[in-house]
Amino acid sequence: MVEHNANQVMAIMVNSTQAHRLLAAAIQAAKRTEFKAAQQKITAADQALAKARQAQTALLTKEAQGHPVHLTLLLIHAQDHLMSTTAYCETTKEIVALYQKLTLVTSEKKG
């Protein structure tokens, strides 16, 4: 990997990984009906994804300005992880919303 791209590539990977972990924790919190905690984890995951996208944007900007970004397996992995975590984020938000609705419906039936 070209040394001057290492920081951006690692930022994409580290922040995407952090976001993924937070999203998994959000689903677990929702399963326990801890919706405030789930939302806090989703918010933190959104922030981590924003940092990953900033690093990605830095590489895209560099290339758009005529400075080639060397394609490496690490960069491909980082991009793949960012893309899959972004999709996981949207799915997690839907899952948490479904748990909230299920909890509401269940409590209404009991009451």
Automatic annotation (TrEMBL):
<keyword id="KW-0479">Metal-binding</keyword>
<protein>
    <recommendedName>
        <fullName>PTS system, cellobiose-specific IIA component</fullName>
    </recommendedName>
</protein>
<dbReference type="InterPro" id="IPR003188">
    <property type="entry name" value="PTS_IIA_lac/cel"/>
</dbReference>
<keyword id="KW-0762">Sugar transport</keyword>
<keyword id="KW-0598">Phosphotransferase system</keyword>
<dbReference type="GO" id="GO:0016740">
    <property type="term" value="F:transferase activity"/>
</dbReference>
<feature type="binding site">
    <location>
        <position position="80"/>
    </location>
    <ligand>
        <name>Mg(2+)</name>
    </ligand>
</feature>
<keyword id="KW-0813">Transport</keyword>
<dbReference type="GO" id="GO:0009401">
    <property type="term" value="P:phosphoenolpyruvate-dependent sugar phosphotransferase system"/>
</dbReference>
<keyword id="KW-0808">Transferase</keyword>
<dbReference type="InterPro" id="IPR036542">
    <property type="entry name" value="PTS_IIA_lac/cel_sf"/>
</dbReference>
<feature type="active site" description="Tele-phosphohistidine intermediate">
    <location>
        <position position="77"/>
    </location>
</feature>
<dbReference type="GO" id="GO:0046872">
    <property type="term" value="F:metal ion binding"/>
</dbReference>
<dbReference type="Pfam" id="PF02255">
    <property type="entry name" value="PTS_IIA"/>
</dbReference>
<feature type="modified residue" description="Phosphohistidine; by HPr">
    <location>
        <position position="77"/>
    </location>
</feature>
<keyword id="KW-0460">Magnesium</keyword>
